[in-house]
From TrEMBL:
Keywords: Hydrolase, Signal. SUPFAM superfamilies: Duplicated hybrid motif (SSF51261). InterPro entries: Cell_wall_metabolism_enzyme, Dup_hybrid_motif, M23ase_b-sheet_dom. This is M23 family metallopeptidase. GO terms for molecular function: hydrolase activity. Residues 1-33 form the signal peptide. The lineage of its organism: Bacteria, Bacillati, Actinomycetota, Actinomycetes, Kitasatosporales. Residues 75-172 form the M23ase beta-sheet core domain. Its EC number is 3.4.-.-. It is an enzyme of class 3 (hydrolase).
Amino acid sequence: MRAKRCVRVITRLVLLVTLTATVLLAPPPPLFAAADVTVPAGDVAVPAVGRAWPVGLRPPVLRGWEPPATVYGPGHRGVDLAAAPGTPVRAVAAGRVAFAGRVAGKGVVSVELTGTGDPPLRTTYEPVTASVEEGAEVEPGEVIGTVDASGSHCASPCVHWGLRRGEAYVNPLGLLPPWLLHRGPSRLLPVFA
């Protein structure tokens, strides 16, 4: 009887160690589901020209891209990124400031991205207090303003990041290369000779 109990305890310990090792060595989950990262077929092509997140290093996405079924239908024409008021907002890619001002009481900055076709892609950030003026050239990662304390449509402070080509809204996450989209540290595995 005692031998059976020892075998059960050892079996449970081996199972616990195996499960713990599996969890610790598994790659971290992606920050977004694959559907959030890719631009759906039939939509406007988006080159991965982004070199920086608009806020922080890898901000939590409070609400993702939800394209509307019709032009005026319900949806979410951008992504909401968690950001405290006063957080610096950065240009994701090189471009020219097309607009910096207020729209419907909210601070908005819009940047026309360099080398993205005709019509060029235009990314927007709101609510933002602009630190750049219309016509200014910006580089990736350059601060273009700060997150406003008011004007957000999120339940908690956020910045809404949108992207358009002409009149078509597209998923702004498509601007970022895959290495910027995933969270978690790199993991080095042992090499056995």
